[in-house]
Amino acid sequence: MGTVEIGLLYGGATLVALFAGLPIAFALGAVAVVFMYFFMPAASLDTVTQNVYEEMASITMLTIPLFILKGAAIGRSRAGSDLYSALHVWMGRVPGGLGVANVFACALFAAMAGSSPATCSAIGSAGIPEMRRRGYSPGFAAGIIAAGGTLGILLPPSITLILYAVAAEQSLGRLFLAGIGPGVLMVVLFAIYAVARYRQEKAAATAAYAQGGTWSELLRTDTFTARERFAAIPRVLPFVILLIGVMFALYGGIATPSETAGLGAVLALVMVAGIYRIWRPAQVGPILMSTLRESTMLMMIIGMSLLYSYVMSYLHISQGAAEWIVGMQLSKWVLLAAILALVVVLGFFLPPVSIILMTAPVILPPLKAAGFDLIWFGIIMSIVMEMGLIHPPVGLNIFVIKNIAPDIPLRDVVMGVLPFVGLMLVSILALCLVPGLATWLPTAVYAG
């Protein structure tokens, strides 16, 4: 049987295993082991554990459970609610300030927690009820939170970027810096849309009230005194200290990425213990258990994805596919569009972790041969994968929102996030037209 036939059979078996309902880690691992049995030397099965261990024996991998611990500690506290409340006070004068405050709160919380669903849950549990109470349409309120949670994939510490750094053999520090510019761009775009949508809904509410309709809370204006604004600063200050501390340690040459992850976890635990009094064993236990569960799940997926990729490489499936793509002699932008379309389709069914580790051996060599900067592409790919969290049919963030606000119809949630999907596409287009949005900062920092 030739490489092409084996490759098609490998892909088909993977789809069957995934659609059969097997957990992703077990589906990928089972397919890999079966193909090792039939198409590789018999001794290969004896080295499964060794192969997985060797593939995962990267110091960069150590950052993942530590960043998860950091996010779990923050997520278990009232940090998300406090952050949202403080930003609401400062954004009160901005039209649609409540929506903008939610966008900023999602961005800051995501930068600390590193998890999109956790951000949706932490900020959405306070933000969605408040926005609805203030007259925001349910779909709009849900869309802001669901899309705001996706900002965590670009802002350090992003687990997705960590895995891409491992798979693409790129500098993690450069990737973290490259994500800041596009991340800020998306925050600005989301905030602008929040203001525009608020104005639209307020105009409709004003017209309805003028024609004898009911009063809408959108017509009420919040006013906060200077004292209230400054009183809110202490609620934001710990987050700022945590972010600055981690970034300074990483880019000041004080600590490696793994050491920085450890520092972030310790600072987060100290913060929740000192500010929110979460220090008793009964309170810390759930944080550690949550970290253990999520880390174990993620590491299982990573390990089996790496084994899956190892088998692909051994059977020359990935090399053959890469050579076939190069041999098509597509223009570089058509090649990029085709690869991103593939990532979008995979995002319907797979999490970013699996997409990166499964596709990297196939798509990165042709992209590198076409002259694309792999740091830049990592940011583009991350945005595309994060779109999968807010668009059907899977859309994990959509279901997190449904859990927070079960009375909002699923159709309203989906319609609420679609404009943000469009804004993410605008961000991708901007990065294609102006690559410096992603490449300038890492080049400037590391050139010095």
Automatic annotation (TrEMBL):
Coiled-coil region(s): none
GO molecular function annotation: transmembrane transporter activity
A Pfam family of this chain: DctM
Gene Ontology cellular component terms for the protein in this record: plasma membrane
Membrane topology: Multi-pass membrane protein
Start and end residues of each TRAP C4-dicarboxylate transport system permease DctM subunit domain: 14-436
Subunit structure: The complex comprises the extracytoplasmic solute receptor protein and the two transmembrane proteins.
Similarity-based family: Belongs to the TRAP transporter large permease family.
Name under which the protein is recorded: TRAP transporter large permease protein
Organism: Nitrospirillum amazonense
